[in-house]
Design a protein that fits this description.
The chain is an alpha+beta fold and 326 residues long. It contains 7 helices and 15 strands. The protein starts with a strand and ends in a 22-residue tail after the last helix. It is found in: Nucleus.
């Protein structure tokens, strides 16, 4: 029977009130999109006179790319709480106009935050975008997670990106645009950017996909860490078949004793194709079927309903169970 019991759940921490979120991408610190640590910048003297905001910021986004950034322009007083703003390291470093100084000090982060409140991301069409395409004359801006999700080329050495329309200009960078496996630029649109080391890999060379959720926060095999404990013991690592993120078996809730032999999906990537319920909203004891495509409730409905007439089973008539979908 094709059944996977979800006793391999991530130790998720849901955003709560007063949780700090990035003033650019609106994600919390333990984001899956590779923005690195959440840093506070300031105090900025020009924002000391701001009165506390009566309009709180929207609920932080995190795992869903559709929740990156802001749907409406956020209030500056809410972003600069006590004249301090919180921004992920990579969101700040890659922003247009921000300067990286000695000891990793950054200048003009406040200016980037202000400009982001009025600038739409080319990929998600939400506000907070501050990373511009490096091609001359191009006016496209992105959030850091969206730049990867869009398939843009990212250069960690030079801290700039090339949008999909201008990605061919990456060939001018020589070896920096080469795949770490095949040592060639090859198909530039197939390159994945590692948020850990900055190297590029062809998805085809690693025999994995290149979907937006895989690209955002992607880590190469050498840099991949558990998304629950981050850098830690490098053993018993499970890799999600959908998003390619890694999790220790012992960091899951409840923990797993061994690595499963079948393809595995993290809770964030489990979506029932019949009712649309997502894995994160179900209890840890829930079961999944058909490669995590059918939830326990829908599977039970399948088992008690005729697949032809859709009527409940008659006690006097036995239903025949399909060996594939059950």
């Amino acid at each position: 029977m094709d059944e996977q019991k979800s006793n391999c759940e991530e130790n998720d921490s849901e955003p709560t009130e007063c949780v700090q979120a990035c003033a650019l991408c609106n994600c919390v610190e333990r984001s899956l999109h590779g923005q690195r640590e959440l840093r506070h910048f300031g105090p900025f003297s020009e924002w000391l006179a701001l009165k506390p905001s009566a309009s709180p910021l929207p609920q932080p986004g995190n795992d869903d790319l559709s929740s990156i950034g802001f749907s409406n322009s956020p209030c500056l007083a809410a972003l600069f709480d006590a004249s301090v703003c919180w921004v992920h390291h990579w969101c700040a470093v890659w922003s247009e106009g921000v300067k990286l100084m000695e000891n990793e000090k950054l200048e003009n982060v406040d200016k980037a935050v202000i400009s982001g409140t009025q600038r739409l991301c080319e990929y998600c069409k939400r506000l907070g975008a501050t990373i511009q395409c490096h091609a001359e004359g191009c006016s496209r801006f992105y959030h850091f997670p969206c730049s990867a999700a869009s398939g843009s080329f990212q250069s960690m050495k030079q801290l700039f990106l090339l949008c999909p329309e201008h990605i061919n200009k990456a060939e001018e960078l020589g070896e920096e645009a080469w795949c770490a496996v095949c040592d060639s630029a090859g198909e530039l649109t197939d390159l994945l950017f590692c948020t850990g080391c900055g190297q590029h890999y062809h998805a085809a060379c690693l025999e994995i996909g290149a979907t937006p959720i895989q690209r955002a926060g992607w880590q190469c095999p050498e840099c991949k860490v558990c998304q629950t404990c981050k850098p830690g013991e490098d053993s018993k690592m499970l890799v999600c078949d959908a998003c390619d993120k890694g999790y220790h078996t012992f960091c899951l809730q409840p923990a797993m004793d061994s690595l499963p032999s079948d393809p595995w999906k993290c809770r964030r990537c489990r979506v029932c194709t019949e009712c649309g319920v997502r894995g994160l909203v179900l209890p840890g004891s829930a079961q999944w079927f058909d490669n995590y495509a059918v939830c326990e409730t829908c599977q039970q409905h399948r088992s008690s309903t005729c697949g032809v007439c859709s009527k409940p089973a008659n006690p006097s008539v036995a239903l025949q169970c399909c060996s594939m979908c059950h």
